[in-house]
Design a protein that fits this description.
This protein has 14 helices and 19 strands. The chain is of the alpha/beta class. Helix 7 packs parallel to helix 9, helix 10 packs parallel to helix 12 and helix 13 runs parallel beside helix 14.
Length: about 475
């Protein structure tokens, strides 16, 4: 059978989609190639959030095609994901040697279309149409390929799409409207992962805290579950959202050690979710809470739906519910019309919250989004300058917070060899900080207490003496 190489750009949702496509292809008899240079099929799973991501994928595909014409005639090329969804046939018009363009609701069709292309039954395929029920089609995982590479963490997609329509974001157009899977379906997938040795599950959604909010009737299959989570919440005077009910249901799985989720929206942090951090021990003390800007004026232009004061109140509540919680965020620099005063508000918010880390994005106009047509688009040089300033502040705060952990013991879940140094092992704290230490393969999947001896750039290093080798 043919071999396939999949390269992924963008977010954790894209990583999960690529894993599921790969698992489906392996189940059909395909093998996974180590690089595009030895593969029969090359698939690029694309991102459209920023123009740079699209240009990188287009440049990569052009280079792969050019090399294949010289060295590997007959190779099949495909675009998957968000850029495929937004550009469709335009990608084949631009790169005529591309054989497959597969949208975000069609990942489960990859094997079918590749079989046809390789058999000569089709010349090219472009499929970016909506498909009812597509949110429930991505269940496959690549786990336990061999004893030395078994996964102890896994992503589980709980929904597709986004209804938020932030003015800067193309995702609602590439991922469609919100569509949630049922709680029993998600729990069944999580249970199967636990039986395969997974100890930590990350629940994924474009806005994960919006899970089940479309058609939230109590009889809705999206909201149904076994157990008394909703009644438990109601007795406390808090109406449990479907997302909290889902967390409670996954929390009941025996053998699961940790639950994470990403990415949420500040509007989704109601009292029930904040309280969940205090009462569900498997829900780790880590929250990635995108703020985007510290300026109320810019937040309104972005259509974010909250104020600076409300965001800070959520942070206060989370830290009260779970002291020591790790807080990370997303920040966009250079949004149209952002003044120096607006930017200063973002800097001051970073100082006030003291994020453990932040993912910084230079504003990039996206086709057909409201922000792309806004006046006062900022020059690239100014965006670069502001990006450097906020990056310096985030790094300064992060270093201080990481250095404060030196000499302390932390619990880590050992995931496997470090990417940068396979001779060492790596794991994550409950607060989602990476720890590198010397250990043996037998520690994979274990919860260990490790003493922190030094720090690197957003990395902790542990004392191997604690591990009892």
């Amino acid at each position: 059978m043919p071999s396939v190489y999949i390269k992924t750009y963008g977010c954790q949702m894209n990583e999960r989609d690529s894993e599921a496509v790969a698992a489906q292809l392996v189940a059909k008899g395909y093998s996974l190639a180590a690089s595009e240079h030895v593969a029969d099929v090359v698939l690029l799973n694309t991102c459209s959030v920023r123009d740079n991501a699209e240009q990188t994928a287009l440049g990569k595909m052009a280079a792969v095609i050019g090399d294949a014409k010289k060295n590997r005639p007959g190779q099949v090329f495909g675009f998957l994901g968000c850029m495929a969804q937004s550009r469709g046939k335009e990608l084949i018009d631009r790169l005529p040697d591309v054989d497959l363009v597969l949208g975000t609701q069609k990942f489960h069709r990859a094997a079918e279309y590749l079989d046809d292309l390789l058999a000569g039954k089709r010349d090219q395929v472009v499929d970016v149409e909506e498909e009812s029920g597509s949110e429930g089609t991505i269940r496959e995982h690549l786990l336990n390929g061999n004893a030395k590479a078994r996964s102890v963490t896994a992503f589980v997609s709980i929904m597709q799409g986004c209804n938020q329509h932030c003015t800067f974001c193309i995702v609602p157009y590439t991922r469609g409207e919100e569509r949630s899977r049922t709680i029993p379906d998600i729990v069944a997938e999580c249970r199967e992962l636990v039986t395969q040795g997974v100890k930590e599950i990350t629940l994924l959604g474009q806005i994960v805290t919006s899970y089940g909010r479309r058609g939230r009737d109590a009889s809705s299959p999206n909201c149904s579950r076994d157990g008394g989570g909703a009644l438990h919440a109601l007795r406390r005077g808090v109406a449990a959202t479907p997302f909290v009910q889902l967390i409670e249901a996954v929390h009941e799985l025996e053998g699961l050690e940790r639950i994470r989720f990403t990415s949420p929206h500040p509007k989704g942090y109601g009292q029930d979710l904040v309280e969940a951090y205090g009462r569900l021990p498997k829900l780790v003390e880590s929250a990635h809470l995108p703020v985007q800007s510290g300026s109320d004026r810019v937040l309104k232009l972005m259509h974010r739906g909250y104020t600076r004061a409300r965001y800070l109140e959520i942070i206060r509540q989370l830290r009260a519910a779970r002291p020591g919680i790790g807080i990370t965020t997303d920040i966009i620099v250079g949004f149209p019309g952002e003044t120096e005063a607006d930017f200063t508000e973002t800097l001051s918010l970073c100082r006030e919250v003291e994020f453990d880390n932040a993912y910084l994005f230079k504003y990039s106009p996206r086709k057909d989004t409201p922000a792309a047509a806004m006046p006062d688009q900022l020059p690239e040089a100014l965006i670069e300058e502001r990006h450097a300033r906020v990056l310096g502040l985030v790094n300064e705060i992060g270093k201080r917070k990481y250095d404060a952990l030196v000499g302390r013991k932390v619990e880590i879940l050992v995931e496997g060899p470090s990417r940068k140094n396979p001779a060492r092992l790596t794991g994550r704290t409950r607060c989602n900080k990476i720890v590198v230490f010397e250990g043996s393969e037998r520690h994979r999947g274990e919860l260990l207490d490790v003493k922190i001896t030094r720090t690197g750039s957003f990395t902790l290093y542990g004392d191997p003496a604690i591990v009892n080798l």
